[in-house]
Fold each of these.
Amino acid sequence: MSSETVSNQDNVKPGRRKKRPLGGDPQKGTALAGAANALGELKGTEEYIERNKMNIVFLRPKDIKKTFNARFIPCSLEEFASVSWPNLDYDIDAATDLYPSLLEPRSWYKALNEQQQADFIVFLQRIHSTAQSIHSSRQLHPITAEREHAASDDAYIVDGERRTLSVLYSRGKIPYVKAQIFDYMLDKEARARLKDEANDVPPLNDFEVLDSKLARLDASSDLMTMTLRPLGKELKINKERAAIVKDVAKHPQREALFDRFRNERISWANMRVVLDNGIDTRISKANVSSKDSKPATSKVGELVDSAYGDSLKSIGKNVGGHLGYGCSLKYNAKKDSVKLSLDCPKEKLEELLGLLGYQDETR
């Protein structure tokens, strides 16, 4: 036998593959080891440790206070709880029929414009549906809250305003709010970041997304110094929208500007038009040039008004908001059909199927 070293490949018997070391491809193994090390380092950070030290508690609705939330609610939690909302046994249509008589005497409702009133009715329909779901099943996902210390009764919403309103809406049928709670008050930057991360589902209006992103900039001076691409990446929006957020944040008439965006439900594309041409700029069809506001079947610059928005994107947004999950609609011209997709986290699938009326007969 030769004294030369025989390679491992030479020792492999015909018809059998050479065994790889545990972990597969050495390069992949290195990547996995690197990921594991990174996770280990993450778990050692203060942020990760603090995020996972939250306690699960059951809060009385009256002990929950509202802090900033981008979702537009025209009244305080106390004012909301004072309304004799429809019984949860009512279906959505029956509940909707009662809303005008319940709301019209209220000064905070009368102060809304026609569009805001219509939006609030749609929001209440979602609240009714969520309250029914929590009452018939249970609250699957806790809200996130904070309080000054462990012995404090008052808790402040970080994430979960819609679930809290659903419990208030039930008028005692749901006695508690399940909450994951920080036993201390978060700093302004952490609070704004957590709220912003939670504001994806159900979808927000454009002005509400802007509000959420502005809170991030207000809480962190570092974000204002970023260039647009990294800022957009940090805020999870494109650089054009990042530019709008930055321009609004430093605008000398910021409050009045935002009030206009909110009151008129101005889109991202038209926000840019107003910023470029002045706060009193009249919005017309000719002003619209962004794909954000262009209906799927329209020409550039054309707007078609309807109750739900005459585009698949806006219709999907409305459907997703009603169900509480991200929704998209895509048109297939060849088949002349529309595909509906729902973006549902795995752990919420059972809840979604329940909303759709599906029951698993095999269980």
Amino acid sequence: MAKVPPPGTPSLVLGIETSCDETAAALVVRNPDGSGGILANKVLSQIDDHAPYGGVVPEIAARAHISHLDRLIKEALAEAGKTLGDLDAIAATRGPGLIGGLMVGLTMAKAIALGTGKPLIALNHLEAHALTVRLTDRVAFPYLLALMSGGHCQLLWVENVGAYKRLGTTIDDAVGEAFDKTAKLLGLGYPGGPAIEKCARAGDPTRFALPRPLKGRPGCDFSFSGLKTAVRHALETAETKPPSAQWLADLSASFQAAIADILAERTGHAMTALADQGRLSEKTGERRFVLAGGVAANLALRQRLSRVADEHQFTLFVPPPSLCTDNGAMVAWAGAERLAQGLTDPLTVGPLARWPLDPDAAPASTPAKGTGVKA
């Protein structure tokens, strides 16, 4: 049986992330008082490999993980001045994600755990995003989490490690997917989020009257497919073809503004619902709102959600941009958080392409094809 470090001692955890198109390894230490630090954080982006296809190709991603993961782990250990024998646990993403990539990372973690006799922690990728802010800002439980990444778009009430209640999710595409698909339509390149944000800086966000799906409806669920359709229609009916740079900038800005409005309204609904349910303290400082995932790096969206937080007397916390996108440090930290509670996994555990943080959550309020896939 793997040996768990005794209570009241610091823990050193290796984190491995291979759920999509970043190959990552990191070492994180967690202290008994809940504070922690990153000793090494190595991330290899595969953007150049996938850019010609306008999206992630699973086979290419898995092969890249196989080629680079071993080297990244060695580099992380060397940078931290540690050896495999110094580890207290090995954490790896079990899911959700691309099954081929998950198999690579989880198999590597199992091999290290078996060889060192240290515990394995097979993590939910979404939990790693959810807990990152506890490393960077020592945010206490509970808090409202807006998890916005390439494949996920959810509002969650985070009560503790392993305790998550989903308040809302997308009924079609995630917000990151909406950015990627829209950028591809406009010929702006991949990944779509940074491309649209850059193009939108020179644009007029009021030029195009794009829809805000589900606006005015109760609940906290999201929808973005109608917005993408409207962008396609604007492109097809443009007077000048190809459109001018200014036209593209205006449409990008209008699209980004619509996304911001959608996120702001649904997040506001969640904040109101939490207050109505009596889950929030009367003290403003105890109304905590966390924005996590790659979309959190978008300054315009972050500023809009900051205003929503102010309106509802929430304090906004956002991890640094480098820890919003997929990385090994968030996996290592979540592993350390689970280890502190004695939560480890057997070596027989397998990868999961789909793995909701809240398995008891009801289906989205407006069922659509694919509902629940990203949940």
Amino acid sequence: MSEGNGQFRIRKAVPSDADDLIRLDEKVTGMRKTEYWRDLFKRLRARPPADLFIFLAEAEIGKESGRRVLGFVIGEARAWEFGSAKCGWVFGIGVDPKAREEGIGEALLARISESFLAAGVSTLRTMVARDNHLLMSFFRSEGMTAGPYLQLEKELD
């Protein structure tokens, strides 16, 4: 299934998209995470499609040039060990900085939300670094608020 607004379309990512997604993620985060993406696609092939989702937004840039990946979202419908009922977790979303403010992030979040609903969950969750104001503002603008859990951590020697 693909959908979009005429300027871009959203579709399920496939293993042959990995290199494009690795490049875009590096552009967005500043980190090259090749093994992370390869592992996601291995899991996608091994897991029932109702649990793990990777979508991308792309634009056609001409017959000779092909397409340009503009954004992605990754998530999983699962129950966590902390007593949480099954919910949809977004653990990665990114939009090419040159394509921001075009509705791509909103469309990607809407698409994965539809998939979570179809997988039988009605709650969407994510984690955001406290100092990531851009991502925090995005999720807040999409109606997300603080949830019932608090992340705790400790540096190990």
